Amino acid sequence: MYLTREEFHRRPIIPAWTIGRRTQKADPADRTPCQEVLSRQDDAEIDVFFLHPTTYTGARKGERGWNAAVDDIAVNQKTDSTTILYQASIFNGAGRVFAPRYRQAHLHAFFTKDKKSAAEALDLAYADVCAAFDYYLTHWNQGRPFILAGHSQGARQGMYLVRDRIEGTSLEKQLVAAYLVGWPVKQDFFQKIKPCETPEQTGCFCSWRTYERKYALKKAHETDVVCTNPLAWNTREGAYSDKSLNRGAVLRTFCVTYPALCDAEVYKGVLLCSKPKFPGSIFFRRKNYHVGDLNLYYFNVRENAALRAEAFLR
Q1: N or C: less crowded end of the chain, CB within 10 Å?
Q2: Domain CATH for 172
Q3: CB 120 within 8 A of CB 22
């Protein structure tokens, strides 16, 4: 059925859940990279509300092309086989993972000169995220502590969700931590919620964007943006963390892990990372490691989420 943009924007959103233990749905976020790493979703005392990044990147059709439909089979399959498997699964060692499908903005929204349409697309996506969060609170949360996690567009929507719906409300007491990765969060974006400065701190947020070290040393300049070191779990600039602290990355093959792959250092609002070496890395030429923000530090993030959950429950 063809919808005009106005009709598409007015259409009510019924949250469709990528995952969620209470829905009894088996999905890629239940998986772990190896047998000895266990999912704790069945007995976890906290939840994880995960917002996936942009997976709507193909050709846009008609006026509805600025936002993906939640029943788009191709987009949903892409979402599940990429970000849900490789990113949402990070958090199944800390809590029950819930990840809503939402009418995400097309990748073009971040590069177009048509700022008005881009803003409308992102606003629509955010409205869906808020509706899904309300649905989660009403049907599944039951007062449980929760982690909010998101990457890229998901982090962008997540930081507004934290500011608009959590900070300064009773929900702030339930917030274990927010992982807002792959999107710049300015130092003064939140009034009360602060950047995490220790591995066990709760009620705080982490954020980083990863770049190749030599490139970023020349190009980085944002001194008002929060950057967390995912090997040290603080925001101290210039404090180098050797790759020996990296517990393991998960890259193109989910069941293959790469310990000690990447180092980390905070520098002018971004995370410096020396070029990782893995099979085929000789052909890896990009300088922006955005796609690997979470996966280059997969097991460090996984262990930290569990650590913060335990600290919160104590």
Answers
A1: N
A2: 3.40.50
A3: no
Domain span at residue 95 reads 5-207+292-313
Q: Domain total for the chain?
A: 1
The distance from CA 122 to its chain's CA centroid, rounded to whole angstroms, is 16
DSSP characters over 184-250: --BTTS-SS--B--STT--SEEE---EEEHHHHHHH---TTB----TTT-S--BT--B-GGG---EE
Is the pLDDT at 4 greater than 80, yes or no? no
Measured distance CA(227)–CA(89) in Å, rounded: 23
Domain annotation covers residue 166: yes
pLDDT at 230 exceeding the cut of 60: yes
- The distance from CA 136 to its chain's CA centroid, rounded to whole angstroms, is 18
**Helix residue ranges, H only, 80-222:** 85-86, 115-136, 153-161, 213-219
Mean per-residue pLDDT, 146-159? 98
Residue 237 counted as domain residue: no
238 located within any domain: no
Strand partners, 206: 179
Joined tokens for residue 194:
């602060």
Instruction: Tell me if 137 sits within 8 A of 164, measured CB to CB.
Output: no
**Which residue bears the tokens 């995490």?**
196
Q: Domain for residue 85, yes or no? A: yes
